[in-house]
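Support reply, case 0932

Customer input (verbatim):
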Amino acid sequence: MRIATLANASVIHTQRWVEHFRARGHDVGLWSLEPGPQGLATKALPRWPLPSFVRYPLAAPALRRALEAFDPDLVDAHYVPNYGLLGALAGRHPLCVTAWGSDLLVLGRRGALQRARARFVLERADLVLADAENLAAAARALGARPERVACVPWGVALERFQPAATRQPGLIVSMRMMEPVYDLRTVIEGVAPVLESRRDCELVLAGDGSLRSSLEALAARRLPAGRYRFLGRVAPAAIAEWLGRADLYVSAAHSDSTSLSLLEAMACGAVPVVSDLDGNREWVREGEGARLFPAGDPQALTRALQGALDDEPWRARARRLNRDRVEAHGDASRNMADVEARFVALAGRER
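Our regenerated output:
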């Protein structure tokens, strides 16, 4: 099958998605305004120095010409406001649009213009993929036909994400990008009293983003020296290694569908301490595999971390429960096979 994927090539999720379908033997062309890593064979679209709501539509004529030459069996567009819009403007069918979370849960609800843009895209999609029920519900509310919406978590590679042979007591790990929606300020403020009271605890923050310099400055003021680290972007193997030996995984996101880093942590045995969101509650509940706290509340995060660290028998039970849950519902090989079957069926119907 010939698949034309439209997505941000600089994002690890795009890279994993494309590499999966290429490994399955499909001819996958990737078009992006953002440059990808060497070896991904990204086809560049024109990128004008303009606001994003103008920049992406301006690339549509070049994309139409490229798709006419490539002649895909299916167009696979990721993230509704930019590449979903590009896919809809290109006018090729069948069109699958994959929502990633904040594109519908945050941006799609922000104002009349954003809602109209989301509706324009979703009404033209032959298939809408969502990785959580709250995201699927948002897609339907914003105009996607219910019979065209499928909820399929991307899942994680269980053979890679496994507990390490030994676990580092007190190691707290964050794997979220350093952008406002993930609220790393609350993480740092919430962890600070824990590191002050527990000499064996350490905070490791992987990921990068526009807020990194301000977060590093905040950490220097609030956290004990030598007890925290900023890793920047790390490869999947390194993510698995850190999560495999971490005691706790922390996320203070204000919005999420199914967080892949949450599933990775669950698979690796890093017990989640995460904000109380619909997307998180589809996988864990308070006291049942995780500790939850209200988003934006660093004092509640401190209490949740302390409660988790104080109860080793509970953490051991949570690790077993979470691994079982991911094996049952978050296996990437099984879930991506579901996506592939939907792509094949959709391309076959169009022909």
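We compared this against your earlier run and they match. Two observations from our side: The chain is about 45% helix and 15% strand. The CA atoms of residues 165 and 319 lie 14 Å apart. Please reopen the case if you see a mismatch on your end.
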